[in-house]
Design a protein that fits this description.
Distance between the termini: 73 Å
CATH architecture of the largest domain: Sandwich
Radius of gyration: 23 Å
Shape: elongated
Number of strands: 14
Protein name: Sporulation-control protein
Structural class: alpha+beta
CATH topology of the largest domain: Immunoglobulin-like
Oligomer: single chain
Length: 255
Amino acid sequence: MFNRFLASIGIGSAKIDTLLEKPRYAPGEEVRGIVKIQGGNVEQRIETIQLSVMTEYIRESNDSKITQNGEVGRYHVSAPFTLNANEQREVPFNFQLPHQTPLTIGRAPVWVKTELDVRGGVDPGDNDRIEVVPTAAMNTVLEALNVLGFRLRKAECEYSSKLGGKMPFIQELEFVPTTQFRGQLDELEVMFYPSDRELELVLQIDRRARGLSSFFAEAMNMDESFVRTRFTNEQLAAGPHAIANQLSGIIARYA
């Protein structure tokens, strides 16, 4: 009875360790691994094993910036079961990394959070950092931006209830022009919305002030345009130079 009480407050209860098949993934890729569970001093009822893909995003509040944890996806990978005292168990799992998972560039960590839902006890957990790299489609766009002379300056996840879709945040990649659009733009922000068949982009085009009217527009934040565009997988297969030509035409209309 005393051991059961200790387990209820986390002393001598079950422990877990999540082992992922590999440390690096692209959005949309399958994540596989196992959850290793070590039983505690007493028998415990496990309601479920839950995996969550987590990241951090920045939210402004009262003129200050606050970093918050954000959930990208959640998965239940086990039916309820009884874990005997000192029992060792391995639970395999697999899930698709959400398409909207941020890339781990700049200040955007991503990790897989594992939790046991223990009836009447403290839920043990485990966190495993992963690297999230661009998909082939994203790489084509990033190479196209490089062709146009844009250099990545910053990447971070920011609160946006409108642009985030199902999530309260979106990752913004901030580029500065170094050649073709230098003198016309202050910066270009790119947001990715990938899927299996196409890649949608939201471009935030920030024009540089030229003349008095442009100066006042910049002061009132009226110098920015939001543009949505889509590239199918067939279009992306044409390569970065073809995409660069299309992006150049879009940006030029708003520069």
